[in-house]
Amino acid sequence: MGVYMRALSEYLSAIILLTAVVAGFSILNYSLMRHVESIASVSKELSDTPKVSFIAYDNGYVYAYNYGAPLTVKDTIVEVYVNGTWIQTSKIGRETIFRVKSNGPYVVLDTNYGLLVIRP
Questions:
Q1: What does the pLDDT look like over 87-102, one tens digit per residue?
Q2: Quick check: 79 and 62 in contact, CB under 8 A?
Q3: Most buried of 8, 12, 47, 103, CB within 10 angstroms?
């Protein structure tokens, strides 16, 4: 009888442990999915607004990266980096590296979203 009780005890312990592990993974999965959904909604919001990061100021150019909505620049020459060359344009696409001629480490662009200041 002692061997039977010991085996039953180990079996029940294993079932309880497995249940706890599955419950833990379920809670973790639910938590991660909530965060992924919130990040996706924030990402969608960010894609509808201009988001530009300053990269550097070098040789009279301000270099930046657009990771938000596409921009249309008015009255300023902008060069975008495409396939290893710089191309002059007035449109800056999403996920695009671009540069603007400047006398200092900042530039103000008049865009379809209004004035955009790019600085360190």
A1: 999 999 988 999 999 9
A2: no
A3: 47
- AA identity, residue 61: Y
- Joined tokens for residue 116: 């955009």
Question: Model pTM?
Answer: 0.61
Q: How confident is the model at residue 42 (pLDDT cuts 50, 70, 90)?
A: low
96 Cβ contact list (under 8 Å, min separation 6):
65, 66, 80, 81
Helix intervals (H) in the chain = 2-47
Residue 94 neighbours by CB under 8 Å, 6+ apart: 47, 66, 67, 68, 69, 70
In terms of Cα–Cα distance, which of 75, 58, 61, 70 is closest to 109? 75
Q: Residue 69: is it exposed, middle or buried by C-beta count within 10 angstroms (0-12/13-18/19+)?
A: middle
